[in-house]
Amino acid sequence: MIYKNRGDKPTKTGFGEGLVDAGFDNKNVIALGADITSSVGVNLFAEKFSKRFFSLGIAEQNCVGVAAGLALSGKIPVFSTYGVFAALRAADQIRISVCYNNLHVLIGGAHAGISVGPDGATHQALEDIAVMRVMPNMTVISPCDATQTRIAVKAAIEKVNGPVYLRFGRNAVPDFTATDQKFKIGKADVLQDGDDMSIIATGHLVWEALKAAEKLWKIGVGARVINLHTIKPIDKNEIIKAARETGAIVTAEEHQIAGGMGSAVAEVVSENHHVPIEFIGMKDSFGESGQPEELLKKYGMSSEAIFEAAKRVLKKKRISTLI
Amino acid sequence: MKQIDNIEELRKISKEIRKDVLTSINAAGSGHTGGSLGLADVFTVLYFNVLNHDPENPNWADRDRLVLSIGHVAPVHYATLARAGYFPLKELKTLRKLGSRLQGHPGKDHGLPGLELSSGSLGQGLSIAVGMALSAKIDKKDRQIFSIHGDGELQEGSIWEAAMSASHHKLDNITAIIDRNHVQIDGKTTDVMKLESLSDKWKSFGWNVINCNGHDHNDLINVLNEAKNYKGKPSVIIAETIMGKGVKSIENNHTWHGKAPSDEELENFVLQLEIY
Question: What is the ipTM of this complex?
């Protein structure tokens, strides 16, 4: 593995740290709480800037509307709760109050993916990317580790002038991206080069993709690993380049296959340079309780599943070149 | 903007606004006639007497804010904005047409001056007012936030989430105005989903509740100023109104919630307005 894990750390901590960074840099940043502030990292901001934190209780629809009102008055509001509630409970408020008004509101979707674990299906956000990416004006970010999440929060506040949905996970995962990385919203990171096929991953599965690539290397397959941290606007150039140069793609995300990051990649590939794709993600089902690694394994989102998908897509690539 | 205190003059403006509502909806061929007519007096008093605003400088930071939560009565808002000088009156005839700044429900990105926000999905405006009011408090500015709601709209749960948060944060710079006309698309509010006791509901949510006649300009001026000056709690004005007010033949008729007058009806309705 060419990347070193500095130690496991939850991406939600990165979210909270990024908010604090942004709070120091910009007095207009305001955070809203929907009761579960310590589960979503907002407590770190509330402790530092108590006058710029407002508790609104368990009322997500109101939180999103209040955020819109603050943004209409020149503030930069951040609202965060579990992704299932942030993206779905208040979807209409996000659509009309935030997106139709094109307001700079940062929505943090915590507990992304099945790796939420023991809480089970109700709290595992597996549909949020699909719903958020179809909202006009919305930017959708899904960073891969705590360090990148921290940097992404700052970028979302400083570099975007519209609504942003940023999803992050619950459990501690390898923290490996560089602290001085050049993070650009809308520009995918090529973490590892390779010519035989590409793995395009997002969120926690980026680390799993790197593990799968290592295994593939051992059997003589050079896999390109791309961290697609921004799902919208999508980095078309990097995706088309991967399709052209490697001829086969596996996408990997902790999300429903339907409508998710893989679907977004497929939209680009099918319109520009057609190559076979295998999709790693939830197959139209709900999750369940269990330990994160058990769930990733059972629902086919582990590094082994990515490795197997890579072998399948390589076979398809061979067949398509024979034709 | 210069404040008009003369009640006769305000009444005349309301009549003009009602005519504009009818002609613009007639030209569009669709739109919400009943509620728009019913709110003409409230809008007149707000824009010509109560609101601190400047049509020459619509984005002036310290202006009072008006949040139209019921986007479907856009025609009365547009007519009032035009009468106040935000844009030419002749533009009212572009309502609901392709490329118009006057969208069927308000769309901010179409660039109509004086419009604070896009709206049209019910139950969202009070939350936005709460956000605007919090912002004014943070900045220590005394701008006032007014929001306009339908009575049927109060059936949306999100309104009560917002109501709870406004009193929790003591946002006395909010005045919510309820267009209490007792009707909604399917019929009477008491039959569709009863709202009474409405005053008690707001009181128990920690609001200062004021009742008034939504067609009496004098009463409206008094209660809006009373609400503006009330300290410690947000205020709600429950304005008793008549849907379709001014056109006798359609008053209180819920089938006129979302119907446009034909050319023939327009002529007749304008005559009814003249004698009103």
Answer: 0.96
